[in-house]
Amino acid sequence: xxxxxRNPVLPGFNPDPSICRVGDDYYIATSTFExxxxxxxxxxxxxxxxxxxRRPLERxxxxxxxxxxxxxxxxxxxxxxxxxxxxxxxxxxxxxxGNFKDAxxxxxxxxxxxxxxxDPVYVNSSGFDPSLFHDDDGRKWFLNMRWNHRTESFGGAxxxxxxxxxxxxxxxxxxxxxxxxxKTIFAGSSLGLVEGPHLFKRDGWYYLxxxxxxxxxxxxxxxxxxxxxxxxxxMHPNTHLITSKDHPExxxxxxxxxxxxxxxxxxxxxxxxxxxxxxxxxxxxxGRETALQKCAWREDGWLYLESGGVxxxxxxxxxxxxxxxxxxAVIETDFDEGVLxxxxxxxxxxxxxxxxSLERRExxxxxxxxxxxxxxFEQALVARRQEHHSFRAETVxxxxxxxxxxxxxxxxxxxRHKFHALGVTWHETLGRVVTILSCPGDFPHGRLQYxxxxxxxxxxxxxxxxxxxxxNDLQFFWRATAEEEWASIGPALDAGVVSDEGGRGEHGSxxxxxxxxxxxxxxxxxxxxxxxxFRYEMLAA
Length: 541
Fold this sequence. Notes:
CATH class of the largest domain: Mainly Beta
Radius of gyration: 23 Å
Shape: globular
Active site: 16 (proton acceptor), 195 (proton donor)
Distance between the termini: 27 Å
Largest sheet: 8 strands, antiparallel
Structural class: mainly beta
Strand content: over 45%
Strand order of the largest sheet: 4-26-29-38-31-32-33-34
Protein name: Beta-xylosidase
Organism: Sinorhizobium glycinis
CATH superfamily of the largest domain: Glycosyl hydrolase domain, family 43
CATH topology of the largest domain: Tachylectin-2, Chain A
Number of strands: 39
GO molecular function, one term: hydrolase activity, hydrolyzing O-glycosyl compounds
Keywords: Glycosidase, Hydrolase
């Protein structure tokens, strides 16, 4: 049997995939939004097996997202290789709601993906989703969509006129700035909401792929071409290269926003983001994920899906014989190594020593209680992506609160108005308790619910906490020692609300669900909480 690529190749929150090949090495860069460090870069040698190798935006001089609203931060990076350097172009979005986006675009470079990346060079702020094209004559061209604030285009309900076409301008590396005229080269198709531009050149044609339709269920990869880089561009015979918008039965929904790549022997592939909604609400609890499609060039000089049509496939042929490495059903870390395991991230801040330490107590992750869960500034939350529709996460927390303003525990988290949290805290009459704080999609107010009331009194010892998610349902558990049976706490909660479509709804948020450890101390005393392990287990659906 021929080797197959199984989609999504990057499960869980990994949207806007930009792919780059250097020799026999493939790299995919994806958006990270408000999660720090910024941009995920995965590596593969066969397009089948992928491994996270770098998050390059890792220090304050490159990225500071304190104060960025939910679903802002790093949008749609573009990764390329030229002149012996890797080039990464990205947007840091500072505003979401209202007519403005305040989207600032930057370039960083490195000699190797795994190396330390440069400080950023500012480019422009006219719109988001930038990319950099290296032409074969040595010139470099910068593209981004332009945002038009003069429409009734409010966050969460985008209107077509706000997406004001794809801009092109030359980038001069010697002066490190844009030069020459700015030109709108592509207005998009009738689907509208044109964004995510990527250029490549083949047989004397400039091919432009863009994302259209918004990053929901009408999403699509649109293709056009021109003999000159600044157009005019003619549309693909099918308009869209990849889309599921007219096929609600397709396994991979929300298909759009990707980039073309060729193998060393000339085989054609195209990345795209996708979502896998759960019935009955069609909510994508894993966020927007990355997929790969096998393509083919036809005699008319256009690219098509090899399988025919426009609907993406779950399984597509790999470029060569290879074996898919088995994925572990359980991933556990005990914090004994003194470094944070690569699957973990935190929110917004380039000063992680303010929110966590792996040195203060051997074999433990110490979180310092800072601002409230859901803060846009300094929140102590260390978490990993949910990568399966059904999973279990466990941790053990050693925490001695003396006021209800101090809470630490385990959370299933999306953003400030979509999360469930099981926390150890203090109650005036019950003493030390474990209880639930839940915000099941209350936008814009973010009001909490307390499904376990005042909570359950617990002994003065480390407390074991667990989350179990089965598709749309979540149940919390706790126990005092490893020898005891797990006890459920509270009712089954709506896990499906911790999704792109939950709460505010489609186009309202763009990240994904995380499971992780949190601590807050709104008294301002920075009460520490020590976690001595974290376990993530895939469950059978």
